[in-house]
Amino acid sequence: MSREKDLAKKVALRIKRKKRVRANISGTAEKPRVSIFKSNKYISAQAINDVEGRTLAAVSSQAMGLNGNKENAAKVAAEFASKLKAAGIETVVYDRNGYLYHGVVAAFADALRENGIKL
């Protein structure tokens, strides 16, 4: 019983952080918001224009046949950077989606920077 309560508390704290971060950032057509999601197995990201409510580009490690570790986060970010460049996007706002900025989330952001996307 305690394990379920711990998990519920962990999720509630992430949602609280997510709301706090999203209160300060939003994406536009010129500078979209890049939102990352990570599960225990996979990671995914999408570039969002919040003004129109449209997704401009998206990528998933599951679709690429990769799991969600730090090494694969760099590969997924490289693919995502190429999709962003194809859409004419060079600068983005990074939304960590309530996750702490370390591990996969930080590796993804660093790989985006290495591939020419300004955060």
From TrEMBL:
Entry annotated with the keyword Transferase: no
Alphabetically ordered keywords of this record: Ribonucleoprotein, Ribosomal protein, RNA-binding, rRNA-binding
Matching SUPFAM superfamilies: Translational machinery components
The organism's place on the tree of life at top rank: Bacteria
Coiled-coil ranges (or none): none
GO CC field: cytosolic large ribosomal subunit
Gene Ontology process terms (BP): translation
Keyword Ribonucleoprotein: yes
GO molecular function: 5S rRNA binding; structural constituent of ribosome
Record CDD domains: Ribosomal_L18_L5e
InterPro entries: Ribosomal_L18, Ribosomal_uL18_bac-type, Ribosomal_uL18_bac/plant/anim
Subunit and partners: Part of the 50S ribosomal subunit; part of the 5S rRNA/L5/L18/L25 subcomplex. Contacts the 5S and 23S rRNAs.
Family: Belongs to the universal ribosomal protein uL18 family.
Biological role: This is one of the proteins that bind and probably mediate the attachment of the 5S RNA into the large ribosomal subunit, where it forms part of the central protuberance.
Name of this protein: Large ribosomal subunit protein uL18
Gene that this polypeptide is encoded by: rplR
